[in-house]
Structure formats: structure tokens, C-alpha cells
Amino acid sequence: MKVALLGCGVVGSQVIRLLHEQADDLAARVGAPLELAGVAVRRLGRKRDIDVDPALLTTDAEALVTRDDIDIVIEVIGGIEPARSLILAALSRGKSVVTANKALLAEDGSTLHEAARTGNGDLYFEASVAGAIPLLRPLRESLAGDRVKRVLGIVNGTTNYILDKMDSTGASFTDALEEAQTLGYAEADPTADVEGFDAAAKAAILAGLAFHSRVRADEVHREGITEITATDVASAKAMGYVIKLLAICARSDDGRSFGVRVHPAMIPRSHPLAGVREAYNAVFVEAESAGQLMFYGKGAGGAPTASAVLGDLVAVGRNRLAGTRGPEESTYADLAVHPMGETVTRCHVALDVADKPGVLAQVAELFAKHDVSIQTVRQEGRGDDAQLVIVTHRATDAALSATMAGLRELDIVRAVASVMRVEGDEQG
């Protein structure tokens, strides 16, 4: 069975290594040898992390994926183009595709799935979310007989490393980011990670599988971590919380819609996700019959991601030998994605206020005006350092946003120092 590989970077080189080192085992698991028939690269003379037979290298990726003798195409180049065109070219010719391309799946997954269906090939993408963690296949297959209510987790290792260092050492966001870049956990341009774009693409894929509906990345509410300060982290720590960038996909109470969001949130230190350190990922899945399941492991890196790619490769190879296909995209539910304003959540709010009588009464009156009840409140500091720290009960995000806007108009409020959502208390 002949395999074409698109990309020979960090992940692609590890795919080649595993194909060579585990050739006999893979052949036994698939039922036929897997032969690497070609590797598409941008530059032929570039130094690579692994030795590759020069005869396999080509810069003509389209010619490679459309060769008649190719059975399976592995795409690990990332990005939208030329990845989309190459995958569609392969699928339209009846070849099966294994991809790790979360951005493409979140932007135009429906087109890829339709091409796989009409071309009678497989489209597998376990490596697109959470690296080596087997997460998508359980959602796609193992829990197909259950009703998933919520998916909540940490799906970006870069941001988790940064927030973990801020929590454990008191470092600023800038210092923690620089350390992550030095260690290779963050790119030179970390925007996709720290602004939440990477996690949003993964959340779209997770929500689509969990709720049997199509979800695009632009339908995911997204907030990054760049505004989180060492003071925010210290305040959360003092209350027994830790700040994490969470991807949250939750079905509405009436089951007719669901929300998909990525944003930083405070979670109790008793929550299992609070103990996810450094660049690791972890995801909770809550289903009606199965209850709560937790998936944990290395969410990125060459070898972990290649492990997921090889797992899909074995599954696809078995299907081709048997003359069958894996599960198709399931969108029968066709549920709507409800706006963030309808999402019910809780907030931790820090207000810089004037140090005089009646401040708390005016603040409480404004919260009540917008039907946001207060769970706890405490006053810190005196004079110019006076601050109110409030934790609300659950309310819609629209009500909480209206409350924050109103607070900024009050004369007694010098500044809304920070606003942080609170999640996970029901798990703690």
C-alpha cells in the first residue's frame, strides 16, 4: 500500500521515522506493507531532521497526490492553501487522506468531507486536535450511541505553559512567553496560540463531532490570554483558583442549540484540569450515559502528533484492504450555534473604587438592575488602593457584559481592573 507524504517538517520527519522503525509491526496491523512512495517538500536541498532518500523528494505535490499508484495521502503541511487543493485532488481520485490540519478542517471541513464521500475515500484527522491524545475517535465512534452534553478542556499547550509559569513563579505574561519561545513551545509569532485562534479551530472540530452539526471557526467565541496580568493570576491563586485557557462546547438545556467558546477562565484548584501543567492538554467529555470522561496527554510535538497520524494511517489502510470506509461526517442534528450573549456563566470582577460609604450599595444596585446576583464580595485596600472583588452567581453573558458597561459609568468606580469568567465549580 503506497503512501504519499505532504510535508517533512517537525511532524513529517517523525512520520517518516515511525514508518521506517515500525515497518514490520505496521504491516502486520494493517495487513499489508506500507511503502512511502514520495515526500512533497518546498525546497529539495534543505537540511532535514531525518535522512530521506533523495529519490522520494519532490516539489511537485500535485503530481505526487494524483499518481495512480498512490493509495493514501498524509498531509502535515498545515495552513489553508495549498493543503486544501491537494487534499481535494487526492480525495476526488478515490484516495484516502490522513491530515493534522485543524485550521482547514475548521474553515472548510464540509467541502473535504463531501469530497471524501463522492470519491469513496476516507478522511481521518485525529492528529488535528490534542496531538497524541485519542480524543476525536471516541467522540466520532465510541460515544456514537450516547448523547454528549459538554466538552471542556485545555487544547493548546503553548498557552497552558505560559499560564502555568505565571501561576507557579509569578512571572509576567511577557516573561513567560519568552521562556516558552526559548524552549520551543511557542512560535516566533505566537499570535495563533496566545490570541486563541488555534484553540478555536480545535473547539469547532470538537463541537461538530460532539453535537453532530457543522461548526466553523468563525462561529466560535474567542478570547486570548494577552491581557492576563500577574496580578490577575495572584488574585485567583489567593481565592483557591487557577487561570486556564479553556475550550468549552456545551449543549443548551433545551437541546436545540449549543455554544462554542474559547477564553481564559478561573477554575478551582480542586478541579482535575487545574493540575494540568506545562504544555500538556486535557479534555473532559460529559455524556448522558457514560458520565464524565477525561483525556490527558501531550497535545503537541513531532512524535506525539506523528503517533496520532500513524494510528489513522493504520485505520485507513485496513479500510482500503477490506474495501470499506470509515464513518462519514455526521451532521444530522444540524443544531444552531447560539451567540455568546446567551451563554450562562459566572464572573470574578475586580473594581478600583472610591473609599467612601455607600460604594457597595451602589455597585450591588447595578448588579441587581441587570439580574446578576452576587455570590461573594470582599473589600481590599484603603484610599487610592481601595478595591471591591466580586464573584457572581450564574447569569447570561449579555447580562454580565451590560453590568460591566454600567459599572464603568459609575462615578465611584475608578476602573474595572479585571473581569474573569469562572468555570468548573460543578466539577471541583
Q: Which descriptors would you attach to this protein?
A:
Alpha-Beta Plaits; elongated; alpha/beta; Dihydrodipicolinate Reductase, domain 2; 25% strand; twelve-stranded mixed sheet; 428 residues; Rossmann fold; six-stranded parallel sheet; 18 strands; 14 helices
CATH architecture designation of the largest domain: 2-Layer Sandwich
* Percent of residues in β-strands: 25-35%
Helix content: 25-40%
**Cα-based radius of gyration, to the nearest Å:** 24 Å
Could you tell me the CATH topology label of the largest domain. Answer: Dihydrodipicolinate Reductase, domain 2
According to CATH, what is the class of the largest domain?
A: Alpha Beta
* Protein structure class: alpha/beta
Low-pLDDT segments: none
Cα(first) to Cα(last) distance is: 49 Å
The multimeric state of the shown protein is single chain
* Number of separate strands: 18
Coarse morphology: elongated
Query: How many domains would you count in the coordinates?
Result: 3
Instruction: Sketch the major β-sheet.
Output: 12 strands, mixed
Tally of DSSP helical segments:
14
Q: What is the typical, i.e. mean, pLDDT?
A: 94
CATH homologous superfamily classification of the largest domain: Dihydrodipicolinate Reductase, domain 2
Short description, anyone?
The chain is α/β, with parallel strands linked by helices.
Helices and strands in order:
Layout: E1 2-6, H1 10-21, H2 23-30, E2 35-40, E3 57-58, H3 61-65, E4 72-75, H4 83-92, E5 96-99, H5 102-119, E6 123-124, H6 136-142, E7 148-154, H7 157-169, H8 173-182, H9 191-194, H10 197-211, E8 221-222, H11 230-238, E9 241-251, E10 257-268, E11 280-287, E12 291-298, H12 302-322, E13 336-337, E14 344-353, H13 359-369, E15 374-380, E16 387-392, E17 395-396, H14 397-409, E18 413-422
Parallel strand pairs: 1-2, 1-4, 2-3, 4-5, 5-6, 8-10, 10-13, 10-18
Antiparallel strand pairs: 7-9, 7-11, 9-10, 11-12, 14-16, 14-17, 14-18, 15-16
